[in-house]
Amino acid sequence: MYLLGIDIGTTGARALLVDDNTGAVVASATSDYPLHTPKPQWAEQDPEDWWQGTIRAVGQALRLAGITGKDVRAIGLSGQMHGVVLLDESGTVLRRSIIWCDQRSQAQCDWITERVGAERLIRLTCNPALTGFSAPKLLWIRDNEPEIYARARKFLLPKDYIRYRLTGEYASEVSDASGTTLFDVSARRWSEEVLHDLQVDRDLLPEVYESPVVSGRVSAAGAEATGLQVGTPVVGGGGDQAAGGVGNGVVEPGILSATIGSSGVLFAHTERPTLDPKGRMQTFCHAVPGAWHVMGVTQGAGLSLRWWRDNFGADEMELARRTGRDAYEYLTAEAAQAEPGADGLLWLPYLMGERAPHLDPDARGVLFGLTMRSRRQDVLRAVLEGVAYSLRDSLEILQHEMALQPREVRASGGGAASALWRQIMADIFHTEITTLNIAQGPAYGVALLAGVGSGVWGSVPEACRATLRVVDRLAPDPQRAALYDRYYQIYRALYPALKDIYKAVARLTAG
What we know:
It is a single chain. This protein is of the alpha+beta class. It is 41% helix and 20% strand. It has a 7-stranded mixed β-sheet with strand order 18-19-17-16-22-23-24, sandwiched between helices. Strands 3-2-1-5-15 form a 5-stranded mixed β-sheet, sandwiched between helices. Helix 2 packs across helix 4 (134-144), helix 11 (302-312) packs antiparallel against helix 14 (376-400) and helix 12 (314-323) packs across helix 13 (327-335).
């Protein structure tokens, strides 16, 4: 039998089939869909695109594996966090989803903070109100599209909309719910106090489960659309970061993951809720029952390289089309031709504002230090280095302010496929970077959760121990690390120097 992990990413839906006996990946498929940016710093997607992408990806994965839906033992769901899906009383989507990287809701964040109180909000939810989170987006709709909000009968997160289409159930789980600003992360339940203060109806919210717990079963409609079997159990699953933590084996103290997907995340397992009083690092429930995690997020990590590819990488994309290779392989190979430090170029990856450590929706991307000597490969390397500098910002907080000292940092996500990017992280972090035998991220993590929920393994740590092992290690180079330390100090000085200018630009481009 097989376990199916489905991940609703920012760029596409992914389906992954795992042998429930060996833990081996037997097939995977991805189906892309568009991202809409109707205004600067806005980001939306159509939930129907997610569903159609899921149908295509699941069907292709089943065909590649040579199996049918009857062979799938259980299903786990993961996805981009924080997106707002509103459904009317018939279950119809009312508008495009405002997704995680959208920055339009600062006024609502300010209102939430004033209404609840900054310290009280962190006490109740473990986090401040951030534009990336769900509640500010929900309130933006209430403030700006009241006719839509009045018709809403249910709010779901992206992966939970797929659960609804698969099973007919309105359900979520603790890790994804943690990113809504409506959830009591310490108690692992919706916060009645916050809901009361924000005047959000509890009936708008789904039931919440622990991540390995069965939350529904594939319905007749879900089976007909996907080829899966009626009655197949679907577990709670996890938000993409918690699910990725499981897929990376970050299910015990001392292990840290550094993930470069569309966003970049430093992720640490904790045995209790561990807070950053300044709110720069987020504390959420883990997909491991009874555990939590801390993470620092770079909004525009892989998005930075994607932005470059989409706007300046036409030759690489055409070459990739002809050869069947990934365009990113050609881009990172070109970056490898530049020297460490990129001849003085520095990239601030704030294409969609920034979370850790600045919590600034007005921040903008910056390429600093251009001269007549600057070459294309220098710019590409600067992009890779800038993302690693941004992740180091979070590492500094974890190590020096929150006393979380990792014994191992595991690289994952699309960026981890690049040995160059992994080495840059090792040098900038001053830490050995490891990779695992399986690099499938959130989709693999929720497949393991599906295995726990269906009885293949007795616990999440047991599932990880049975399937994951380190296969590669990259140590930092002392000379490069010392050079990067000097550049990092310049990198850190740029944001404070530009903060007020960012706000001026934001005012000019608003509306």
